[in-house]
Amino acid sequence: MIVLSAAHWDESALLDPHLARRKANGWLVSYVGSVIAQQPQLVQENGRLRWRFGAFLATMGHPHRGPVGFVDVDAYSGEVLTKENDAEEMIANATHIVISLPTAIS
User: Fold this and answer.
1) Are the beta carbons of 38 and 56 closer than 8 angstroms?
2) pLDDT, tens digit (0-9, with 9 covering 90-100), for 52-85
3) Cis bond before residue 17 (omega within 30° of 0)
4) Is the separation of the CB atoms in 54 and 37 below 8 Å?
5) How far is CA 52 from CA 43, 58, 81, 93, in A?
6) CA-CA distance, 39 to 44, in Å (whole number)?
């Protein structure tokens, strides 16, 4: 995997990272739950240019935690490249974080 700067590519042909993040968040809501996409990186892997987002646990009253995994979005077509079985690992990672959070004492 190679992390790139958008300046190395024709930016007019690339999917805007904000739109790619919306696609990543849609995938996360559908398959994982209370996890949000942050920290976009433009990466090239196996000859394919993609936006990669860290998936962070979003729980009320706590800062975002993670990443619990990553979501890749094709940098040209907007296709989410992350597979459904990756969601299971993200859920397991997020569950581990939730279990380790201190509980509020009333």
Assistant:
1) yes
2) 999 999 877 778 888 999 999 999 999 999 999 9
3) no
4) yes
5) 7, 18, 10, 18
6) 16
The C-alpha atoms of residue 53 and residue 73 are separated, in whole angstroms, by 8
Where is 95: in which H helix or E strand? helix 84-100
CB 51 within 8 A of CB 41: yes
Q: Is 85 exposed, middle or buried (0-12, 13-18, 19+ CB in 10 A)?
A: exposed
Query: Quick one: tokens of 2?
Result: 């190679």
pTM of the shown model: 0.81
- Write the pLDDT tens digit of every residue in 25-47: 999 999 999 899 999 999 998 88
Q: Which of 3-17, 44-58, 80-94 has the lowest mean pLDDT?
A: 3-17
In residues, how long is the chain? 106
